[in-house]
């Protein structure tokens, strides 16, 4: 390994070790890798969502089929082509990916699958103009991709843990409800029509479903205390209800 390559890999390692937040640093990795390679870099999820991006001021971005910002989605057919690449593909012709009018523009790329434990989680896409990627560039890119894989797996783990925590809180809250209060929750959710928020009229729901208004109020207060619902009086209009824990919609209630 050359001294320059070793120094570059250490910069990537330092970025990971110095990250003190719980936020996954895909864009930070893209930014550093892009500057080290003089290239544009994009990390894309398995579903085609842009998780991180760096656009070099010296390289014209390929707007066609690519999203321009984090959270956007790339062209679905392009994503399928990315997912069909099962190992690192370097210095390939971008026209083969479906980009038009690029054959004579001097673009070259590195495409690396983001895998973990046998599962495809996304793609790292790197491209630039005028200079083919060297062996050192490819090694550095694959090293950075390993960091991306670890960060993506950490993100998935944290999402799963958060979902588990929210489900446990919800089940605990439901255990505190009486049978009639659970039925009242079902009636409230039905009144919201599947939306995450809306205005309900407790007295109307009570009359339509043969339950008391106080039962509905008590049920909502308990779920609000558990962080499942957010409730706010709107005076004569009724009560504003916001569902803070989507998992409540996955449960069955006697309505």
What does this structure look like?
- The chain has 255 residues and is an alpha+beta fold.
- Helices cover 44% and strands 19% of the residues.
- The chain contains seven helices and eight strands.
- The protein has helices spanning 3-17, 26-37, 76-84, 135-175, 179-192, 202-209, 213-225, and strands at residues 40-45, 50-54, 89-90, 107-116, 119-129, 197-200, 229-233, 239-243.
- It has a five-stranded antiparallel sheet with strand order 2-1-5-4-3, with helices on both faces. It has a three-stranded antiparallel sheet with strand order 6-8-7.
- A hairpin with a 2-residue loop joins strand 4 and strand 5.
- Helix 1 (3-17) packs parallel to helix 4 (135-175), helix 2 (26-37) packs antiparallel against helix 4 (135-175) and helix 5 (179-192) packs across helix 7 (213-225).
- The longest helix has 41 residues, at 135-175.
- The N and C termini lie far apart (67 Å).
- The model has no long low-confidence stretch (mean pLDDT 85).
SSE diagram, text form:
Elements: H1 3-17, H2 26-37, E1 40-45, E2 50-54, H3 76-84, E3 89-90, E4 107-116, E5 119-129, H4 135-175, H5 179-192, E6 197-200, H6 202-209, H7 213-225, E7 229-233, E8 239-243
Antiparallel strand pairs: 1-2, 1-5, 3-4, 4-5, 6-8, 7-8
Report the strand count. Answer: 8
Number of helices: 7
Query: What is the mean predicted local confidence, pLDDT?
Result: 85
State the end-to-end distance.
Answer: 67 Å
The major β-sheet equals: 5 strands, antiparallel
Percent helix, as a range, is: 40-55%
Secondary-structure element order, N to C = HHEEHEEEHHEHHEE
Q: Which strand order do you get reading across the main beta sheet?
A: 2-1-5-4-3
Low-confidence stretches: none
Oligomeric state of the chains in view: single chain
- For the CA atoms, what is the radius of gyration? 25 Å
Instruction: Please state the structural category.
Output: alpha+beta
- Strand percentage, roughly? 15-25%
Principal-axis shape:
elongated
């Amino acid at each position: 390994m050359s001294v320059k390559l070793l120094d570059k890999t250490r910069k990537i390692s330092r970025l990971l070790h110095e990250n003190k937040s719980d936020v996954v640093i895909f864009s930070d990795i893209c930014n550093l890798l892009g500057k080290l390679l003089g290239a544009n870099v994009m990390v894309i999820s398995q579903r085609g969502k842009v998780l991180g991006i760096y656009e070099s001021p010296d390289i014209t971005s390929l707007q066609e089929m690519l999203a321009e910002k984090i959270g956007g989605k790339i062209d679905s057919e392009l994503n399928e082509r990315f997912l069909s690449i099962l190992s690192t593909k370097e210095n390939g012709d971008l026209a083969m990916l479906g980009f038009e009018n690029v054959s004579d523009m001097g673009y070259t790329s590195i495409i690396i699958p983001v895998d973990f434990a046998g599962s495809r989680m996304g793609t790292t896409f790197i491209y630039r103009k005028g200079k083919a990627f060297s062996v050192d560039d490819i090694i550095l890119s694959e090293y950075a991709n390993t960091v991306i894989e670890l960060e993506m797996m950490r993100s998935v783990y944290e999402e799963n843990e958060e979902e588990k925590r929210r489900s446990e809180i919800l089940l605990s809250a439901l255990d505190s409800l009486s049978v009639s209060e659970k039925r009242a929750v079902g009636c409230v959710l039905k009144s919201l029509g599947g939306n995450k928020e809306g205005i309900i009229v407790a007295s109307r729901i009570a009359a339509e479903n043969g339950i008391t208004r106080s039962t509905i109020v008590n049920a909502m207060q308990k779920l609000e205390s558990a962080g499942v619902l957010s409730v706010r009086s709107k005076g004569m209009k009724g009560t504003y209800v916001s569902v803070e824990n989507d998992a409540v919609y996955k449960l069955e209630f006697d309505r």
